[in-house]
Amino acid sequence: MKKLLLLPILLSLTLTLLEAKKKTDEIDHVALAALLLRDGHIQKAADELGSVDLEDKSIDLMRFYTLKALVASKQGLYKESNQFFLESIKAGQEDKTIFLYMAQNSFKLQEYKESLGYLDAAGDLALEKPSLFSLRAELYWRLDQKEKSFEVLERGMQKFDNEYTLLKQRFFYSMSLGLYQSALDDAHLYLNHAKLDEQSALVFINAFKKANQLDDAIALAEELLLQFDKSAKLTALLAYLYIDKGMLQSAADLFDKASIKDELYTKESAELYRRAKNFVLSLYKNSQLLDTKEKLKQRIAIYLEYGAYEKVVVSHNALLRSGLLEDENIRYALAYSYYMVGDFDACEKELRQLSSSDLFKKATELRKNIQKCKTDGWECEL
């Protein structure tokens, strides 16, 4: 929820700092606090208000308590802020703008009924900004009065026909209720009329993705990618959607495209080509990785995938230098590769260095197979 802009009430409270008060050089702490607050010096403004002598009959209590309320709100003391606003009303404050502050404070305190009450008390002021319609709709939503939320947003969109943040808010409400067609309609309205940007495109697509509406998400992503064809993030997002649909080759091609714009996607491209059994392209993309350790680790996975066990064995020294053998899964992969090329002694040497309980059963089975190979070659399971 966007914060309300600093309201004109602060300007009305800012007076010229008096050089003297009566016949003394006493500082006007209230006027100074107003100046400090206007310039963003919150704590200094609070300190000045703390120096005010409330026994002084000349103090303007309405201005004092209003400033105290504004300072407290800036400090995150929302309950105290509303209490000070009420004191300012008792002291003669008639500016209904304070009710907008109070509504926002109550929202942050999760006092939603009270917040609605303050919006009502603000009268026509609560109808002057799209953000206030948005706030009212959200209050009804959290009070489980969802129909009223939609009604408020509809009134707001009629009043501010070029304000598309309300349309986006309705989109998310529709998504949460499973009204996917209505949400899709709102998404297209937004994307066709609002100022289109990459982030908004990602937000709408991700919403359908999280709701497991993959077909709608893919259709929307494919449509938007035509407009944002240089967006690596959007290209990668469509690739992830293709993965969820089991379209591995298409996903790999998209990651390849994304990696041209952003090297962060090179690894995903190589991985997807591996999963799609396109090992030539997988190794090609792997060769483009800048992180040598990650490159070697992924290359081992590619070799294992298409059974190039001799290449894994040849990589033994490189694995040792890189420190990858500290990962027992990598060490087991090396042991298994030694087994597959028939170097049982080297295999056993690697197996002896395993300590993981998860790999103990696999190591035991591998040793059984080695024994079979040594005693009865025809039973050897390579």
What does this structure look like?
The chain has 382 residues and is mainly alpha-helical. Among the domains are: 95 residues, Serine Threonine Protein Phosphatase 5, Tetratricopeptide repeat (Alpha Horseshoe), CATH 1.25.40; 92 residues. Helix 5 runs antiparallel to helix 6 and helix 21 packs antiparallel against helix 22. The chain is elongated. The N terminus is likely disordered.
Helix-strand blueprint:
Layout: H1 9-13, H2 29-38, H3 42-50, H4 61-74, H5 78-90, H6 97-108, H7 112-121, H8 130-142, H9 146-159, H10 165-176, H11 180-193, H12 198-210, H13 214-225, H14 232-244, H15 248-261, H16 266-275, H17 279-286, H18 292-305, H19 309-314, H20 316-322, H21 328-340, H22 344-351, H23 357-375
Helix pairs in contact: 2-3, 2-4, 3-4, 4-5, 5-6, 6-7, 7-8, 8-9, 9-10, 10-11, 12-13, 12-14, 13-14, 14-15, 15-16, 16-17, 16-18, 17-18, 21-22, 21-23
Give a quick set of tags describing it.
Serine Threonine Protein Phosphatase 5, Tetratricopeptide repeat, 382 residues, mainly alpha
* Spatial extent as radius of gyration: 33 Å
Shape estimate: elongated
Largest sheet composition:
none
Mean pLDDT: 88
Query: Order of helices and strands, N to C?
Result: HHHHHHHHHHHHHHHHHHHHHHH
* Gross CATH architecture of the domain at 1-95: Alpha Horseshoe
The helix tally amounts to 23
- What structural class should be given to the helix and strand makeup? mainly alpha
Approximate strand percentage: under 5%
CATH top-level class of the domain at 1-95: Mainly Alpha
Number of β-strand runs = 0
Low-pLDDT stretches are: 1-5, 15-25
The CATH topology assignment of the domain at 1-95 is Serine Threonine Protein Phosphatase 5, Tetratricopeptide repeat
| Secondary structure: helix percent | 55-70%
Terminus-to-terminus distance: 62 Å
